[in-house]
Amino acid sequence: MAPEPITFLGRVKRDRASGVVTPVAEAARRMSSYRVAASNDFPLMEQMRDRAREIRLHTLANLDRYLAQFASQVEANGGHVHWAADGDEANAIITEIAQANEVKSVVKSKSMVTEEIELNEALEQVGISVVESDLGEFIVQLSNDKPSHIIAPVLHKTRYDIGELFADKLDAPYTTDPSQLTEIARSHLRREFLTADMGISGCNMGIADSGTVVLVTNEGNGRLTTTAPRIHVTVMGMERIVPSFADASAVLEVLARAGTGQRLSVYTNLVSGPRRHGDPDGPDAFHVVILDNGRSRTLSGSEAEILACIRCGACLNICPVYREVGGHAYGFTYPGPIGAVVTPALKGLDEWHELPYASTLCGACVEACPVRIDIPKMLLTLRSKAVDDGHLPGWLTFAVGRYASAATHPRQFRVLLKAGGVVGSMMAKDGWITKAPSHGANWTGARDLPQPAKTPFHARWKQRHGS
Amino acid sequence: MAVQLFVTCLVNSFFPEVGEATVEVLEKAGQTVEFPADQTCCGQPAFNVGLRGDARKMAVHTLDVLDATEGPIVLPSGSCADMIVHHIPELMVDDPERSAQARRVAGRTRELSEFLVDDLDVKTVGPGCGECSVAYHPSCHGLRNLNLRAQAEGLLDQAPGVTRVDLPDAENCCGFGGLFSVDMPDVSVAMMETKLKNVESSGADVLVGGDVSCLMHLGGGLHRRKSHIVVKHFVEILAGHYERDHGA
Amino acid sequence: MDRKGFLDRVRQATATADLPPVRQDPPGALIGDLSTADLVGRFVERATEVNADVRVVTADGALEQVVGIMEEYKADEYLGWPDSQMPIPGIGAGLIARGYSPRPSEVPSDNRLLHQTAYYDLVVGITGADGGLAESGSIVLTHGQNRSRMASLIPDAHIALLAASTIVESLSHWAALKSESVTRSANLVVITGPSRTGDIEMHLTQGVHGPRHVHILVLDDR
What we know:
The complex is a heterotrimer. Chain A is of the alpha/beta class. Chain A has helices at 8-18, 24-41, 45-61, 63-76, 87-100, 112-117, 119-125, 135-142, 159-169, 178-195, 221-225, 245-259, 295-299, 314-318, 320-325, 336-347, 349-352, 364-368, 375-388, 394-407, 410-427, 441-444, 457-465, and strands spanning 80-84, 105-108, 129-132, 198-201, 205-207, 212-217, 231-237, 241-242, 267-271, 285-291, 432-433, 449-450. In chain A, strands 1-10-7-4-2-3 form a six-stranded parallel β-sheet, sandwiched between helices. In chain A, strands 8-5-6-9 form a four-stranded mixed β-sheet. A two-stranded antiparallel sheet of chain A has the order 11-12. By secondary structure, chain B is α/β, with parallel strands linked by helices. In chain B, helix 12 links the parallel strand 7 (206-209) and strand 8 (230-233). In chain B, helix 4 packs across helix 6, helix 5 (78-91) runs antiparallel to helix 6 and helix 11 crosses helix 12. The longest helix of chain B is centred in the C-terminal third of the chain and has 18 residues, at 185-202. Chain C is an alpha/beta fold. Chain C has one domain (37-219): Rossmann fold (3-Layer(aba) Sandwich), CATH 3.40.50.10420. Chain C is built from seven helices and twelve strands. In chain C, the strands form three sheets. Chain C has a six-stranded parallel β-sheet. A four-stranded mixed β-sheet of chain C has the order 8-5-6-9. The longest helix of chain C has 14 residues, at 3-16. The radius of gyration of chain C is 21 Å and the shape is globular. Chains in contact: A-B, A-C. Strand 9 of chain A pairs antiparallel with strand 9 of chain C.
């Protein structure tokens, strides 16, 4: 396998050439249209968005207090709470729980946070088998791929890709019918569910006052993961908290509508500890691993608001850049506009300074975001930090600097425009420049450039008005 | 009170005819137009790539030039108006005097269609075009940051000879994005291609917008494709320049 | 990391967090107006939209409906909640009287795998519901003593018995009116239609891991 290209633009080139981005635009457009339809259908949508935003921001501002309350309630419910400063600590904690309980097999329901910390790899390293149970994630795992969308992991694959994959890896008869493919996965995964020793889930929300973990799925894998195995471990990013069930309900009212256009997802699963005395089924033990991994650093600064994200995927679906480049170009677990902020915020700009520039600042994401996160504002702040850290290409810094200096000296500026007109007329043919030198080729590679006016507006005005 | 015209640096250098059309339309609407001669660039290109020092210098210059005038400041650009209305005040928050100045200037600043429709209540503007079919691309900053959702379209619909056709996914960004267009050209061009496919499928002869920056990008793409479709600022249609230059 | 160290770090972060202004206390529950003259009608409409089969029944007619569904699936056994947990009386007793047999729902901790793998091919599950949500066409189930989670999860078809009088406007209304429902049991689930996925080319497929079919019998007890 070729090594992962290290730049955003390198990955864009790779994925556009290989065709994996081809299905993305249409799927994203459809999901956006479902969101719009579901929002229009719900008379309280705008009020509920405001309320969900208030709840998320209020919780972040008081996060230590709510986290402490959540942890105490989980323990009161008979669960165990673990605190992980980073991914390595989280993986070590989970591995230890598994080994202490002689766990051989793990079944997982879809979780972005465990992708973020590469938990599967950590467990497999110590000989524990891990099976992803969300259909999309299962396909990702079987094909050694990465998810390309936070709620639709195999948005980039066609039914033909999946038919071949199942025939190859599962010894299933080749089919391209989505229903039959789903049936193949259902019967394969069912045995895994019913026999796994441990279930690992992510967490859409943690309810502070009841110590409850909220898990939203459509397939039912979230419920199976948290019901069948004898141990259930939830990995929770520390920002996932809301104060109460009522607050969680407000977020849930906008989450599915914004993500998939459903009023609610099929299963909204609220887990408050292990099975209680007399419960016929459910896990015997319940653990929550609370993860920082760069979040407290993010919370401490100008990107704090990004932690209000409820992971619906609406900003990916509407983003005109995401639609063209797909999810893998973003290089990390979180693609699209949310990823362009959250990845550099969590992991630093040194390696990820390109991502804030992967946007036209069109603002479609803010409009779509159910909690109205001002993503462009944070992209702009990250860009200025990237500049401070010396990450802007030298030619751009130079060119803008010269332009700024001319633009603060009106006479110089007028000379510059006149010079532009002269040079332009030398390079242009029939009013168009088709091949500009140096970095100008970045423009004329695929676009012609109109010839700068021989007489700029200010000169025309002067000719007519005399001043 | 006279209207202060801020033409923007791109209109000044590449599209002076858009500035002239703006003057004609404003005068036809009964306005006296003045042009502060020392205006240059609002600073948006620098601001958007994160060069806040450069952006601030240009913004300060712009504020000084505009604050020395009186009356509404009108721009034939949603994006530059957004810069003056929203981002220049943000850039100045740490300096109380500049901040007050930025708020004064922002309060006087209007995008052209907004000024014509919302402030002057202009209903019809001629001469329009003899007969043209127009697709309207609402540029992002005007659309979302200034809430320009119907003003230019309404004027076009009232202009003689103009037939406006539906542009699929009209609110999808065209991919220009300022320096994004040369910093990430592959992505910018991919977005442009998507937009142009929609423009071509709309059946329009003219692609009309309110920001010459986006139009320069899209027009450059159309010209490269040897398309018959041309791009125009809406004010050029209203002023009859399309008819003058391209009419049968 | 220990709890104190972790929380200290979070506390320090909140002190400098650049967040848009927020209220100091969590805002009270917003209950907007979703009222309708016909809550049950809306529930039926919305649940049907998400492909649940909804039938409004009388206490006397419910058993016949359940039997009809059992016959549809050619099922002679089921996993279910006992009559004591059901909003419609006598269904379990009636089914047993007609020769249908309930499967034991207790999963013993010391013999979990054997017990659970026997659920592999289960066809029908029968449960009650604590309430219904009209806006989304959902049913709310709390689990606990004698209330199997698996019954609404593993079988191919889930039959849920719901009293019309327990239907409220929406999830927000439920959370405001019944906040104790989440603390009373270790597991509460809100079910909105049959299990589904759109993961393959956004093609809607029903019955991934959960039931392919959901039948809701609404007892008209108003």
